[in-house]
Prior knowledge:
By secondary structure, the chain is α/β, with parallel strands linked by helices. 39% of the residues lie in helices and 24% in strands.
Amino acid sequence: MIEVRHLSKRFQNNVVLDDVSFSLKEGEVTSLIGPSGTGKSTLLRCLDQLEIPENGSITLNGEKYELGKHSRRSTLALRRQTGMVFQRFNLFERKTALENVMEGLVTVRRLSRADAQEIALKELDKVGMLPWRDHYPRHLSGGQQQRVAIARALAMKPQLLLLDEPTSALDPELVGEVLDTIRNVADEGLTMLLVSHEMSFVQKVSKQVIFLDGGHIVESGTPGEVFGRPKNDRTRDFLNRISRLEQPEYII
Length: 252
């Protein structure tokens, strides 16, 4: 069990996360849904220490990390157990796909280049990007770059994979290939915390769904409970709005 407790984050007078607590079952996918600007991405960034909250902790593998009272050593120790996939792929433009995946293995894990390359090739193969291993990011589509970013995160063997709207920067026709990659990773039993506006995908891939609004957890449960039988009026209103947006304006 991975536990996040009492996570609070503010930007000046704006409270983004207000004493948020929840648990993740290992080997399962938990999805965060909710309106834009409600703190979902900030929550992921706090867990990876890209943002420093005022308060909060995460327990991984029995080890508790105080997120608001960090040191360089504890931050590095936490990041060795987490992987982050961003909206924007954040690949090194002057490194090939293979070199991008190897980078963390060499600089953080301190592996030899031969060992790092062996792992990187396996992860690129897993996400269907092995034929493009020697291509630079500028020669790859957005979907291909995101799959390289996923391979880079997986190569570090994280205990928790954080995905921050991994398809939001993609053209619609490229979304499917990235979602298929995430689904395959989920099937392997990696613990994942996913922020996504792809509601149909969230329903299919998640074991737990958390609805976040105004910096608070409004509702959580299985996809069937949250999407099919929401208890909170705010959840129901949000899902109704999303449903109307996804429906075609006309039928031929």
